[in-house]
């Protein structure tokens, strides 16, 4: 399911990808600035810079996606840890009760 802060785009290889709204906003602002430079000077001004900027934006988007995945994984691990602590505390209490019951019988 796509979140509201994502934009669908198609890369040069025809693969459909999802770009975060954050990176999409940056790309849009940079594109507008490139358009302004092209109108003021000429296409040659940004010709070499454009592919570099696109690569940087793609890498930024990839890192943001990985970060989001790591945050989800971290949350799942925190939940697992909490469950393990709860289970450990429960077993510890049961063991203590069993030992106290054993002492009373002796």
Automatic annotation (TrEMBL):
Q: Which domain of life is it from?
A: Eukaryota
Q: Which residues form the RH1 domain?
A: 6-94
GO CC, sorted alphabetically, is: cytoplasm
User: Which Pfam families does the record cross-reference, listed alphabetically?
Assistant: RH1
Single biological process term from Gene Ontology: vesicle-mediated transport
**Mind listing the UniProt keywords for this protein, alphabetically?**
Coiled coil
Q: Name one GO molecular function term.
A: MAP-kinase scaffold activity
**Which ranges of the sequence are coiled-coil?**
60-101
Q: What is this protein called?
A: RH1 domain-containing protein
Organism of derivation: Danionella cerebrum
Q: Source organism lineage?
A: Eukaryota, Metazoa, Chordata, Craniata, Vertebrata
């Amino acid at each position: 399911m796509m979140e509201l802060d994502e934009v669908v785009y198609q890369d040069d290889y025809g693969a459909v990808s999802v770009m975060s709204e954050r990176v999409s906003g940056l790309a849009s602002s940079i594109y507008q600035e490139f358009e302004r430079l092209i109108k003021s000077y000429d296409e040659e001004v940004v010709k070499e810079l454009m592919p570099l900027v696109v690569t940087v934006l793609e890498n930024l988007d990839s890192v943001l996606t990985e970060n989001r995945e790591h945050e989800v994984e971290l949350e799942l691990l925190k939940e697992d840890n909490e469950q393990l602590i709860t289970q450990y505390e429960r077993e510890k209490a049961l063991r203590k009760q069993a030992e106290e019951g054993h002492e009373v019988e002796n």
